[in-house]
Inverse folding.
C-alpha cells in the first residue's frame, strides 16, 4: 500500500487580488513583474492609464493603485538606502580600508531607516501578503547591503530578509516546490 507525501498549505496566504478588467490586470501584472529600484516609465504610464480608465472594476483599480503607490514608495526609499550606503562607503572606504566607528549622523540614519522599513512592512494587511513580499524582495537586498557594511548594529537587523520567510507557506517558493 502506497501512502504518498501530502503537502498542505493555505493557498490564500499569498493570493493575488481578483481583477476583472484586462487593462487593469495587465498593468497590475507588469507592475508586479518590474523592478522597483527604478520604475520603468512605460510600466508607470500603463498603470496611470489603467487607473484613469472608466471601468466597473473598482476593486481591481484599488489593488492597482495600492501596488503603484508601493512601487513609487519603494523607488524613493531605495534611493535613500543607496545614498546612505554611499555615505558609509565614503566614510570607511569601499573595501573597508578606513574602518572606524560610524559617525553619529550615519548611525542615527541607520536606526531611522530600519524603523521606517519595519513600520512600512507592518502596515500591510493580511490581504496584501503578495505586496509585502514584493516590497521585502525589493528593499530587503539594499537593507542587507547596509547591514553587511556595518558592525555593531542591533539584533533587530537580523530580521531583515530578502524573501520574507515569515509566512513562507503559500509563498511563490512553496507553491513551485
Amino acid at each position: 500500500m502506497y501512502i504518498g507525501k501530502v503537502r498542505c498549505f493555505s493557498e490564500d496566504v499569498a493570493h493575488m487580488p481578483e481583477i476583472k478588467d484586462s487593462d487593469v490586470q495587465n498593468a497590475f501584472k507588469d507592475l508586479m513583474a518590474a523592478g522597483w529600484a527604478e520604475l520603468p516609465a512605460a510600466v508607470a504610464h500603463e498603470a496611470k492609464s489603467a487607473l484613469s480608465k472608466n471601468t466597473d472594476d473598482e476593486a481591481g483599480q484599488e489593488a492597482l493603485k495600492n501596488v503603484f503607490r508601493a512601487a513609487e514608495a519603494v523607488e524613493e526609499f531605495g534611493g535613500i538606502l543607496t545614498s546612505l550606503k554611499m555615505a558609509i562607503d565614503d566614510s570607511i572606504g569601499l573595501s573597508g580600508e578606513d574602518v572606524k566607528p560610524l559617525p553619529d549622523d550615519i548611525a542615527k540614519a541607520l536606526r531611522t531607516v530600519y524603523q521606517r522599513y519595519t513600520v512600512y512592512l507592518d502596515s500591510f494587511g493580511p490581504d496584501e501578503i503578495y505586496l509585502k513580499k514584493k516590497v521585502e524582495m525589493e528593499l530587503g537586498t539594499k537593507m542587507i547591503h547596509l547591514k553587511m557594511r556595518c558592525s555593531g548594529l542591533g539584533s533587530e537587523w537580523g530580521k531583515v530578509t530578502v524573501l520574507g520567510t515569515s509566512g513562507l507557506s503559500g509563498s511563490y517558493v512553496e507553491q513551485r516546490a
Observations:
- The chain has one domain: 22-176.
- Residues 55 and 140 are 35 Å apart (CA to CA).
- The radius of gyration is 19 Å.
